[in-house]
């Protein structure tokens, strides 16, 4: 971050921070990044941040039901559309970070899985449901119709957990999920995914927090969590 940027962000936020906790809800694949952002934003901006991690579609349903979410970072733009249509959020004009699809296997890849085609013979295969972001991305892969999962998971985090604890042998999630203990990630080429920010319509006072997410410190948190910075 350039000299003076931190001070400027703090000054801009001073008038609205008070003792209020700002709720940032994030996709399950962002847990590592948002934990760093929580502490970093609190220190830099002098605000109190609360992080809520769940599947993107779960957060959307919660907001529609009245949950007090101030900023929602979803794993695709499509998920945010119902909130935008209802006038509940404003979507930032560009992604805040990127990821990539990957085959998730148990540590050491005991089945020797090397490609999407390899998954056709995996007996305990899990995939994400098509109504969630990682499932939508997965559904666009060539040859995906030849795969027969034993279950459809509702988030990347849930899918990865089933492989890590031995309930499944492989699945498709994100490259960043390879940082989870008990699994390895095999990147799938040409499968970039993107994360989008929706800001609650009544929270126009959060511009400095949004600026922090796109600035050097915020982008570093995404990169260190295994994602691709939007600044790259």
Task: Give a written overview of the molecule.
It contains eight helices and ten strands. It is α/β, with parallel strands linked by helices and about 230 residues long. The chain has two domains: about 5-95 and about 195-230, D-Maltodextrin-Binding Protein, domain 2; about 100-190, Periplasmic binding protein-like II (D-Maltodextrin-Binding Protein, domain 2), CATH 3.40.190.10. α2 links the parallel β1 and β2 (about 50-55). The longest helix is centred in the first third of the chain and has 15 residues, at about 30-45. The protein is globular. It starts with a helix and ends with a strand.
Give a quick set of tags describing it.
232 residues; alpha/beta; D-Maltodextrin-Binding Protein, domain 2; 2 domains; ten-stranded mixed beta sheet; 26% strand; globular; disordered N terminus
């Amino acid at each position: 971050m350039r000299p003076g940027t931190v001070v400027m962000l703090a000054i801009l936020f001073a008038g609205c921070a008070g003792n209020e906790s700002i709720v940032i809800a994030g996709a399950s694949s962002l847990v590592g990044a948002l934990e760093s952002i929580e502490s970093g934003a609190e220190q830099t901006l002098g605000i109190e941040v609360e992080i809520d991690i769940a599947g993107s579609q779960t957060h959307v349903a919660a907001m529609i039901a009245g949950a007090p979410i101030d900023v929602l970072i979803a794993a695709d733009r499509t998920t945010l559309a119902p909130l935008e249509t209802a006038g509940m959020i404003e979507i930032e004009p560009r992604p805040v970070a990127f990821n990539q699809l990957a085959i998730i296997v148990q540590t050491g890849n005991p089945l020797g899985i090397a490609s999407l085609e390899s998954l056709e013979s995996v007996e305990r295969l899990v995939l994400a449901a098509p109504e969630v972001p990682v499932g939508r991305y997965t559904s666009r892969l060539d040859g995906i119709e030849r795969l027969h999962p034993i279950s459809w998971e509702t988030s990347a985090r849930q899918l990865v957990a089933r492989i890590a604890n031995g309930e499944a042998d492989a699945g498709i999630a994100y490259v960043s999920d390879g940082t989870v203990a008990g699994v390895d990630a095999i990147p799938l080429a040409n499968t970039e995914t993107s994360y989008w920010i929706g800001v609650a319509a009544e929270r126009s006072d959060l511009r400095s927090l949004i600026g922090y997410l796109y600035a050097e410190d915020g982008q570093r948190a995404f990169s260190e969590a295994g994602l691709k910075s939007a600044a790259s």
